[in-house]
TrEMBL record:
<keyword id="KW-1133">Transmembrane helix</keyword>
<feature type="transmembrane region" description="Helical">
    <location>
        <begin position="328"/>
        <end position="356"/>
    </location>
</feature>
<feature type="transmembrane region" description="Helical">
    <location>
        <begin position="600"/>
        <end position="617"/>
    </location>
</feature>
<feature type="transmembrane region" description="Helical">
    <location>
        <begin position="252"/>
        <end position="274"/>
    </location>
</feature>
<dbReference type="InterPro" id="IPR004869">
    <property type="entry name" value="MMPL_dom"/>
</dbReference>
<keyword id="KW-0812">Transmembrane</keyword>
<keyword id="KW-0472">Membrane</keyword>
<feature type="domain" description="Membrane transport protein MMPL">
    <location>
        <begin position="132"/>
        <end position="389"/>
    </location>
</feature>
<feature type="transmembrane region" description="Helical">
    <location>
        <begin position="637"/>
        <end position="659"/>
    </location>
</feature>
<dbReference type="InterPro" id="IPR050545">
    <property type="entry name" value="Mycobact_MmpL"/>
</dbReference>
<comment type="similarity">
    <text>Belongs to the resistance-nodulation-cell division (RND) (TC 2.A.6) family. MmpL subfamily.</text>
</comment>
<keyword id="KW-1003">Cell membrane</keyword>
<protein>
    <submittedName>
        <fullName>MMPL family transporter</fullName>
    </submittedName>
</protein>
<feature type="transmembrane region" description="Helical">
    <location>
        <begin position="680"/>
        <end position="702"/>
    </location>
</feature>
<feature type="domain" description="Membrane transport protein MMPL">
    <location>
        <begin position="546"/>
        <end position="753"/>
    </location>
</feature>
<feature type="transmembrane region" description="Helical">
    <location>
        <begin position="708"/>
        <end position="731"/>
    </location>
</feature>
<feature type="transmembrane region" description="Helical">
    <location>
        <begin position="300"/>
        <end position="322"/>
    </location>
</feature>
Amino acid sequence: MLTILARRCARHRRPVLALAALAAVACALLGHGVAARLASGGWTVPGSPSARAEALLTDRFHAGAPDVVLLARAPDSVDAPAARAAGLALVGRLCREPGVTGVDSYWTGPVTRGSCPAAGGGRAPGGGGEVDDAALRSYDARTALVTVRLDGGGRAGRATVERLLPAATAPRGPLQVRASGHAVLDRALERYSERDLLRTELIALPATLLLLVFVFGSVAAACLPLAVGAVAVAGTLAVLRGLTAVTEVSTFALNLTGAVGLALSVDYSLYLVARYREEIASGSPPEDALAGAVRSAGRIVVVSAAAVALCLLGLLAFPLYFLRSMAYAGVSVVLLAALAALVLVPAALACFPRAIGRGDLFARRRRAPGRAGRGWRRLALRVMRRPLLVTALATGVLLVLALPFRQVVFGFSDDRVLPRDAPEVRATQALRDGFPQLRNPVEVALPGWRPDRPGRIAELDAYAKRLSALPGVLGVRTATGSYVLGRDAPLACAAEASPARGTLPGCPALRHFTSPAGTWLAVGGEADPYAPASTALLARLQEARAPAPPLVGGPTAQFRDARNTLAQRLPWALGAMAVATFVLLLAFTRSVFLPLKALALNLLSLTATFGAMVFIFQQGHMKWLVGDFTATGTVSVVMPVVAFCLAFGLSLDYEILLLARIGEAHARTGDTVRATAAGLQAAAPLFTASAALVLTVLLALATAEVALMKLLAVTTALSVVLDAAVIRPLLVPAVMRLAGRANWWLPTPPRRGARTVLPQPSPSPETVEPSHPG
């Protein structure tokens, strides 16, 4: 089938190239503006207890985490008349904005559109007046908070934030206003992600082109992988644009699309062009050389794309749309890159056979085809003389590199994934410093339970006191008042009512803690949301005796639910990936041992990668090498999963190439040692050139200002380095030598005349050793 495809693409080369260009343009037009439709969340588990608590608080209490938090700072005190008047004017303007459902502030308490403060700072018609909510004022009395809730999220919410922030943060009398909150941070994350994507392209494209010119020795040949990448990326943008109509897609999918699309387009084009040049060097006519190249290297491309796609499909096992978005983008761009390479490369080779297939600016400096890669052959033979020693030493080094992963502490990403000098990050840090009780907000909801009679009011009062007395709790607020260390805290409003007497305080700031849907309590945690102490606090809150079964929400609860879901589904996802990959490689190699060896060596290289993830990004080492970022003492719980699937797939790409070359040599020689040495000699120039090109793309991505993308790029780049420098040239020959005839064992041999998927040698090669791609 691949041979037929190659001959047809060559026969209709000009229409094929024209149609590919038109398809790329059409897909680019369809995908235009996709960035505006992407979301920057995707960390929470739909239907989890924390998600139900958040939905209940948002829909029925207009509570929970606000979308926008404004920090209004006065030169002296926020209680000064001028500051108060400016604050009331700010609240009045905000609550009248379209798309705003409610505002809460130090000066007013919770207000809605019908109770906005009147212009000029007077009392609102309908009773919204000036009440001081001490929880929204800093200890130095110079900063007051104004929280804003928006009507819905998505594009409408982003449009509201874009319209609201410039006016809200403009100088207002004596007040200087800064903005934080998850809607503001999401906006900043999208902005920095778009900048990172542009920077990656500006660095990666010219650097990759220069390296491709050196590898291929031809400008025309160097432009071919970039054209394949452009088609794959444009097609993926159109796919993502369509997916946004039916599901949420993370903004980080764009970054993955560009990096993976370019990297694999280069890989697949390199394999095809290099094999075509080998066929030409062996004396085949151009048409036969093209058919032979696609028949052998094309199978490698198909199996490699299938293997990488299977690895990324494992991300669909998890309900977090951040992970699913990576699968959508990754699988789409991998399959499109393979399809574009199998169609465009034969057509381009047929159209420009000399410029792409034979032209080499550096031909005089390269070794003769039969001598290329002899250093790799000698290395393989030396390794196979002492296979046990090499295996033990290489494995030991990789295991030592993996040791830091024993100290991993998982968490979630927060504002600190952004550059530390970003205005939104500085505002959020000021919020942590000035309002420690809001550092780790935990919401405890009691659905359907209301303090509507004296006995229940006293019961809620006792429950709130019990929670405030727990270790790690700074304070508790609910409808019955404020509590610290198991005791009542003073209220800022005049409240003659007393929970002990069976009546609720009349403070406006406390009214939103009850509704017909039930009651909730705001608990302030002492530790950072993703610290182990906060997870322990969550358990104590759930174990405390409550008036009704509680639902616990907040960042810590969301992290716990996501971590538990990942832990439950990860074994199934990994098992499915391993079985699917094993079956694919079994069909490709007609061997039981070789797929098992591939899986084991890939896992070994990834353990070292995870160790580096903790050493660099959790503990904050080597910033001089990877660039500045904020080490939070945790690793985002979703990033090892993404890094595993991506790095595992890329490693399989090189493994499949090497196995194909070894299999071809074994079919000629029947000797494992000679076949392994010849296979490494043929494949190493290809996978080292490919690794250098992939590293160029990943290191360009590593310049990202968003720490999540930096982490993914650096750890995947390290995996590629280990794979090209340790796994393929050292461990593969050593293990192949130790296994001996077991490498080729299959329980039931194929029937006579049965075809294997493993590429077969060309009809009449002159030499065992293929030529260098150049």
